[in-house]
Specification:
The protein is an alpha+beta fold and about 375 residues long. Helix content is about 35%, strand content about 15%.
């Protein structure tokens, strides 16, 4: 799923230059190099890449930068809080060894890109692709089995570090979700509201029953609450040539949740990119059982109720795809009668997990007919 960036580099360049010159203390001869706007990027935010140079203290300095810009108009999420996302990244950099890009600047106004943004350092590395999935081609499939094993192991090790972060030092606690049960209830409310917003209140034949099941079958004792990355997957990591994790990206869904919330999402994305699209698990990739075993070794915690959290992961991804379908139809990238919100791997896997209805080709498509 990719969506076109709408920022005009020629229009943004002089404004970015003036803004940056005002933010660099004691700097002279501030220059902004060529602005690169990816032709497509994640649907959640827009991306602007540039290099800044300036003189200070008798030296010429340079910084490669990435601006993460809040989308204008219709967007994937109901609301955005880039200040919170930047604060989480800063806290992780200060209090953990989770590799995150340094946050350099924040701008809550709209004078530069017509929307709030923050600027972080640009870090080298490769990202396992989601479109097309990394299980079907690209640099990951070009690795040998041992390198793929290292890739997955290193990524899972970082996820374990995220779950080991001290919540008291992170801007995610709101005073109400300090234990697993309260945190899980909060996540259920978030995604129930998200589903209602994404569907304009319409009943989705798979997501609706799944949410009812998740509410009804919520584990009575979910265990401790930990920092939840929220979008824990290989595709949100930058990897170096040795398959080490250079950076963990995209913290907009971060919050608090039981351990299984992230771990099941991590495993479900791999399942989605294999079983969901009819391709085998690549050689070198661990099985779900091996992933759980390794996570337990890394953390000393045996994950609970993973069948429940896998269903939650499938429901979350299905909700996101429903919203993405609406955006793509509205942008003319899909026809109004597209079945994307129904006949997709996420909803099909969700239906199979919980024996729920999975509509097929003739299902009415409400998003394009509002």
């Amino acid at each position: 799923m990719a969506f076109a960036n709408t920022i005009d580099p020629a229009h943004a360049a002089p404004r970015l230059h003036a803004w940056l010159a005002g933010r660099l203390d004691d700097a002279t001869d501030v220059q902004v190099g060529t602005i690169t706007i990816p032709t497509s990027s994640g649907m959640s935010t827009e991306t602007v890449m540039f290099e800044a140079t300036w003189s200070a203290g008798g030296e010429r300095r340079a910084q490669r930068c990435v601006a993460r810009v809040q989308p204008r108009g219709d967007a994937l999420f109901p609301s955005y809080d880039l200040t919170r996302e930047a604060a989480i990244m800063r806290a992780l950099a200060a209090h953990t060894d989770v590799p995150v890009p340094a946050v350099l600047f924040e701008e809550p106004g709209d004078e530069v890109f017509d929307a709030p943004f923050f600027v972080m350092e640009r870090i080298d590395g490769e990202v396992p692709g989601d479109d097309p999935p990394f299980t079907t081609g690209g640099w990951v499939m070009g690795l040998d089995a041992a390198a793929r094993t290292a890739l997955c192991a290193n990524g899972l090790e970082v996820l374990a570090k995220i779950h080991g972060a001290d919540l008291a030092k992170l801007p995610v606690a709101d005073g109400t979700a300090q234990d697993g049960a309260a945190a899980l209830d909060a996540q259920l409310r978030i995604w129930e509201r998200f589903a209602g917003w994404a569907t304009d209140g319409a009943t989705h034949p798979t997501i609706g029953p799944a949410l009812e099941w998740l509410r009804r079958e919520r584990p009575a004792s979910p265990g401790e609450a930990v920092l939840s990355w929220g979008d824990a997957r290989l595709g949100n990591m930058l990897f170096g040539p040795d398959q080490q994790v250079n950076a963990v990206l995209d913290w907009e869904m971060a919050g608090i949740a039981p351990r299984g919330f992230d771990l099941a999402w991590w495993m479900f994305i791999t399942r989605h990119h294999t079983e969901g699209i009819g391709v085998p698990l690549p050689s070198g990739f661990p099985t779900a059982e091996q992933t759980v075993e390794r996570y337990t070794e890394l953390t000393g915690h045996q994950p609970r109720d993973l069948h429940y959290y896998e269903a939650f992961a499938a429901t979350r991804l299905s909700i996101l795809v429903v919203r993405a379908a609406g955006l793509m139809i509205g942008a003319g990238l899909l026809p109004a009668d597209s079945q994307m919100a129904f006949v997709i791997p996420a909803t099909n896997l969700l239906a199979g997990l919980r024996d729920l209805p999975a509509p097929e080709g003739e299902a009415a498509y409400y998003i394009g007919n509002r």
